[in-house]
Amino acid sequence: MLKRTDNFHEVLKKINAELGQVESKLGGPYIKLYVKDELEHRKLTKYLKIADLEYFTMTPRSERPIKVVIRGIPPETPAEYVKESLIEEYKFEIEKVAQLTQFKTKRPLPIYQITLKNNEVNKGIWNVNTLMLVKVTVRKFERKTGTIQCFNCNQWHHSAAGCGYKPRCIKCGGPHAKDQCTEKPKDVPICINYIIPIILNKRKVTTNWQTFKNYLNSNVKYALPNISNPSEIEIHIKNLTTDILNAYHNSSRPLKPNEELHLPPHIRDLKTVRNRSKKVWQRSRDPVSKNSYNIAQARFRSAITDFNQTSYSNEIEQLNIYDGSLWQRTKRLKTKRSNIPQLKNPNSNLPAHTNLEKAEILANHFETQFTSNDIRDPNTENTVINSIAKFNSNSSPNKFKNVKPSEITDYLKKIKINKTPGMDGITNKMLKNLPLKIILKLTNIYNYLFKFNYFPNCWKTARILPILKPGKDPTHAVSYRPISLLPTLSKLGEKFILNRYMKHANQIKIPIPQQFGFTAQLSTTHQLLRVIEHIHEGKANRLATAAIFLDIAKAFDKVWIQGLIHKLIAYHFPPYIIKIICSYLQDRYFTVAVKDTDSSSRKLNAGVPQGGILAPYIFVLFMNDVPQQRNITLSLYADDTAILAQGKTPEQTLTFPSKITL
């Protein structure tokens, strides 16, 4: 099985030129190579080693060792004695004898696993019915179900015996064997097949949050660092992220199967009685104990059923239309999560089978989506370029309002804990449980962001979850909508930028009154009422109303970043806000996640970050200079636009489109 590469055709040509015609066939991420005999097999493996190509071999069934289990031998018999008896009585060539044990108690069983060389003499093991003058039975050894993992490279579907991959350490992922690793065990383990931290499934673990706080207080120094450049900001953020994740892993444990965390005391007591009765019966095997255990089990199950039914009824009764709980529950019941089927590659029109192939196809599509529209105007471009160049050449004092710890605590009180984390793996629940020491360190870091007008690169990578659009073909990448997940610490930093941005925006009356999107106490309903009221008012005055409704395709993803910076300069925002927003928008990247697999990183060449706190407000600023004309009513909600005009007759409104200049 040869690892498939982009130049697989050239590799196969060289193999055929060196060894003659070798039959090959596609097998998922591999190329299957077939040889006729053992001599060709040796030549092929030798060539692959010399050419430094990665591969693994599949042993033919005729060459695999014979594995059997023998039942009926007294369990106190040593495995070596069983091996000697088989050799002495039957002249078998034994490779290994191992006694099996009971899984939980580790008690030796009267079952022995025998491994023999595959030859005609050893095939006589199937005819053995006595050993050491005791009647025995021989059965085929049944391997546990599951995927085989190699101990050499830690890849799947093959063993170390036939592995031609380079060794990889399971501890650190380095190119060496495990016993040669000098690295100390990590507090946060990594998955070496993806080189990412292993994040515990939040739904299947329980966390002691007091232990979480104690760990951070004990293991993180309080000293506030004196940061001298943006590179040091990246280092301190990385270290703090690692400390928070270490604290989470140290204070969390996986839930046991069917474990209930919030049972009332009387049910816990019934569970304790049930478990005690079960242990008594397992030790004694007394029928009376078995009867007591059955009674305790029935009482516990009945109590659990009543508790679950009561809890469900109470939850349903508390649903109402005012706090949104009814709609959230309905959405949860109606939402159908489906796997992404085999996507068609738009270049080759071949289906993608693996999650990685699907993720790459979606990433290619979204990469083209995050680009500016090709609408060029040299005069406008020159104006924007000159404006930004002039701004950058004028150095002004960097005056900004310091971030206070109270700003962080006020924000953390309002965030929801059920939000999915970004690439860093830090959840809102972790942020809510941060001790004061960590909040002070975060305050110090955020103040340095404003001091250097710098937004960290480690917060600029989004993980995109593709969501199928309703009624679209699931086999095409264009049918999926990107949902971006950003780091939670990034959102916290965006909140502080937004607070300072809004102070100036409110002073200069941004957005315009016609814009209802992302504006306090205004919604789509209010804008719709305004449009309907305008139509009814015209009807009352015997005026006909004509309307044009515009929806800009991919509006958030197509924003011209330089044009947005130019508008910030034109609206005379404070220089430190312009510079940090410029840093926030530039050099952003994304990956696409399909299940547990991420695509390669791609760059966003345009657009404002989806899922960001600051992004919607600066998009509204980008739309703020939309043209307005006399006798034309403009209604906006973000990028959705309604343009209305009225006339005494319907014919008079036919001239309406010619009056609009966009």
From TrEMBL:
The yes or no answer to whether the keyword Transferase is present is yes
Q: Indicate the segments forming the Reverse transcriptase domain, all copies.
A: 448-662
- Which keywords does the record carry? Nucleotidyltransferase, RNA-directed DNA polymerase, Transferase
KW Ion transport (keyword) present: no
Q: Per its record, what are the GO molecular function terms?
A: RNA-directed DNA polymerase activity
* Chain segments annotated as transmembrane: none
The protein's name in its UniProt record: RNA-directed DNA polymerase from mobile element jockey
Record gene name: pol_330
